[in-house]
Amino acid sequence: MRILHKWKKTAEELPRFWFVDRLHHVVNARASLDETERRIDLLQLMLDVATSNEIKDDNNSDVIPKKLQYEEVVNNAFLFMIAGYETTSTALTYCTYILATHPTVQEKLRKEIEEYPDNNESDYDRVHNMVYLDSFIREVLRMFPIAPKATTRECNTTTTVCSYVIEKGSVIQPDMLSLHYDPNLWGPDDPNLFIPERHLTRRHPVAYMPFGQGPRNCVGMRFALMEIKSCLVHLLTQYIILPGDEMEQKFKILDVHFVRQPEALYIKLAKRF
After folding, report:
1. Is the dihedral of CA 124, 125, 127, 132 positive or negative?
2. Tens of pLDDT along 30-70?
3. Which stretches are annotated as coiled coil (predicted)?
4. Which of 137, 156, 218, 260 has its CA 20 to 30 Å from the CA of residue 173?
5. Residue 155 marked as a ligand binder
6. CB of 207 within 8 A of CB of 186?
């Protein structure tokens, strides 16, 4: 019992438990606000659902409770914060690796950024029309999908695909890397080469799926892309990205966790001004 008590105390000191505890405080504080103090954000939307009346399911006459438990609100808030943390930072790691190893691409990207000067516009308005920046990020995520094993779907009816019978209830996981490097989908240029312009050509809708596909694709896709674009614009405006010592030796992609990331990345930053 003494050991269990000691472990419980240690576990509660972990960042995850601290973060969840803080979220409980935030949710409780927000739920106690009156209507005049109501905010318009994701947390408020979840709290609205948690306090709404019951509705009927469209598919049958059963009454389905629309309410979320407050614990579910906390857990979803935790998921939104954590799911976008390591994935986005890893995507930026790959972006900086490509920029360090492809100076011509970096310079072309910087020229496009300079065509849209910062005139006190929001980052969203500024990057919205940067076509090469968008193609650059798409090509990075094609060659280095962050979570290739995260997309799974359950087959809802028995079907046959290329002579293979897939039974209802089977869990399917697409081979994302094979799709992203298929020359029939990404030719005529070699898919192993980094060529952002290939994304200006219309491709098969499921040839590219770093965020999944269909109605259950990554809910944070647009936000993540906006984060990456904003960060790259500010970074390239102020710095030149150069290869660091032992960059290639340490750039070994680890595929043992949910996120596929390099062991380490060493770059150098040279101030432009």
Report:
1. positive
2. 888 887 787 888 888 888 877 544 544 445 555 555 567 77
3. 26-53
4. 137
5. no
6. yes
